[in-house]
Protein 1
Amino acid sequence: MKSDWVVLSISSLALSLFTLSFSVLLKRYKDIPSIFYSLFMLGASLWAISILGFHYNLIFSEKTIWLKLTHSFGLLIPLTLYLFVTRFYEDYRFKDIEIFLIIATTFLLILVMVTDSIIQKALDTSYKIGNLYIVYSFLIIFIFLLCYFVLLNNLFLIKEAINKIQNILIFIGILLSSIPVLIVDLILPYFEIFSYTWLGPLFTFIGIICFALAIFRYRLFNIPIITAEILVFLLWYFSLFRMLGSLKEEIQINLVSFLISFILGILLIRYVTVEVEQREKLEELTKELEKLNKLRAEFLSIASHQIRSPMVNIRGFIELLLHGQYGTIADKAKEVLLKIYRNINDEINLVNNLLDYRKIEEGKIEYNFENINIVQVVKGIYDFYKVRAEEKNLDFILNLEKENIVIKGDEEKLTQAIANLVDNAIKYTDSGFVKISVNEEENNVLITVQDSGRGIESDYLQKIFEGFERGKTDRKIAGSGLGLYIAKEFIKAHNGEIWTESEGPGKGSTFYVKLPLQ
């Protein structure tokens, strides 16, 4: 183990593990699984450094110190990994032996550090093992087997795709990195084969890659900021490593390079942090919006079945009463029934608007296009509202240029859209007139609904066709604010246009509907 690339690789690995450990701990210090995950990564980092120290005689002149540290951290790695996976998956089936594992690990740690029963003496590139080395090895292998079992068991239990992929990556990473490490750093030394112990930390790269994918691609711990932090720390490390190993004439240039990378690294972490925080806020708002949409859907479902159905039945019985199906009714009683009938009809229209709004938003509105005489459609609307206009003493005018103008459309939807305009005109006009006109213009038919009513504020004209919008003059009159929005959507579905004009409050308004001819 005399190659510089090995030193660079293991030290980079240790730095990455160390950075990952503290990044997770700092951001999720209240989360128990994250704490044990951080300790697991920290143990792996210190273990890699200890192996490097043993082979290169770093700091301590006595190699046995590094060797004992290596085997001490080697004990902590499987224990913290076990505590992490059991807390992460909330799998406590081995809770009874957990205390035993902690006590046994602590006991063996003491034996490693203060006795020669596990590690006797370090030589140049090898070492002498003690009588209890086999017990030490058995405990580590046993804990890893428990980890494999917990991970594999949860692999079959988890149903969500993202969580299953996370579990697979963690399992593969731990399996493919731990088995080679156990062989070269635990089993082979028992047979006095020490030539490959330095490979142990390099095998952990497999685990790092799998954990990195679980964290960054599939959002384990939900900490994407760690990516930028690890890259920045590695950039700083290599810049510093290059500066310290450079010649005297190059040290100034490399120092400037290091300072630039340091400043850019800080800016990168700051930028990524802000970006991630904004994205997380957006995700939270999206979740809240989904909840509200779900509540709205539930409300509209209730409106459809629990409110609309009874009102339709009541309206049906009132119609039977008004038509004398249950005998002659006095004129005063008939007037009261008419008022009830109209109020119920308004409420049914309100519920219908809510249901249509939901269908439009979900893209579930169905259209039945066929050849229709739009003039007859407008005539039918005029006849329906004639009585209501007379009750308010309004001049109700119908101006038809032709008796027959055929277009391609859904008669029910167009009737609802135009009727809404006429209904609003009568509703918001206290005196004067309401005029409906149908004219043919080139390849279009233009339907105009004009009134002398309350008019529209200029600032409201821009948003009058938006859902749940109502003007200041509208709020004293019952309504949902959905009628014009639904009318606009129905007209758009017919490749038509709808707009309005008004000179202001008290000066009336005019609504226009332009539809293409057949």
Protein 2
Amino acid sequence: MTVIKHEHLQKMAGALDEVIEAAEGYKAYLKTRMEGHKGISEDVPPMPMLRRQLGNVERFIDTADNQMVEQLINMVNAIETLELAERGEFV
């Protein structure tokens, strides 16, 4: 695990963790709602809406957990490299 030394990046990482955690909670909620409608045909409301919403939150989680985390790691690496170069420790 990367240690983040910069305050702003630490806050961004913490906020991203909270967003992902909240989205996972929402996903669990939707799955529970779907379980409550077991036995209802898949194309009878509210099942299509719940499935669509589940897909939305899964894509949201995927974006946050992959693309946004990757961008954060890139920012952390870039600032660390810059600071090492400024101290003459990295060429």
